[in-house]
Design goal:
Low-confidence stretches: 1-7
Helix content: 25-40%
Strand order of the largest sheet: 2-1-6-5-4-3
CATH architecture: Roll
Largest sheet: 6 strands, mixed
Order of helices and strands: HHEEHEEEE
Number of helices: 3
Number of domains: 1
Structural class: alpha+beta
Number of strands: 6
Length: 136
């Protein structure tokens, strides 16, 4: 898969399926299922500009502080070089944070590594989505 670009439909479909399945685990609010999609070093850089490591993210899901009722991804680009890959997606999600409802439209960049024949997320960065279309 070295040097695969966004035009490679196979890679894009493979990573889109990964994101769909990961989103289903998040919407199920199941920390064990979520954990199966992330590397031990995974972290999320959120729209609030804070970095949330894997352990903290799983803890707030486990406690019920964070719940999701919807999460979708529309993959704009997917690129791979060997056993690493990146995606850039438009995401929509909804849920609650500490009992307060939220909805969000975001641009999401994910980095992945392939281990034992399957992808794992290494890093996720989200920013609020604007109205302007993206060309990549």
């Amino acid at each position: 898969m070295a040097g695969e670009e966004a035009g490679d439909g196979g890679l894009r479909a493979e990573l889109a399926a990964f994101l769909r399945d990961w989103a289903a685990a998040v919407v199920a609010n199941d920390p064990e299922r979520i954990d199966a999609f992330v590397a031990p070093t995974w972290a999320l850089v959120g729209t609030d500009r804070y970095v949330i490591d894997r352990a903290r993210f799983l803890a707030v899901v486990r406690s019920g502080e964070l719940t999701h009722s919807r999460m979708t991804f529309d993959v704009v680009t997917a690129r791979a070089d060997g056993d690493t890959a990146t995606t850039f997606s438009r995401s929509a999600n909804a849920g609650t944070w500490r009992g307060r409802a939220f909805t969000a439209e975001e641009w999401v960049s994910d980095a992945f590594v392939r281990r034992d024949g399957r992808w794992l997320a290494l890093m996720t960065t989200v920013v609020p989505a604007g109205d302007a279309p993206v060309t990549a």
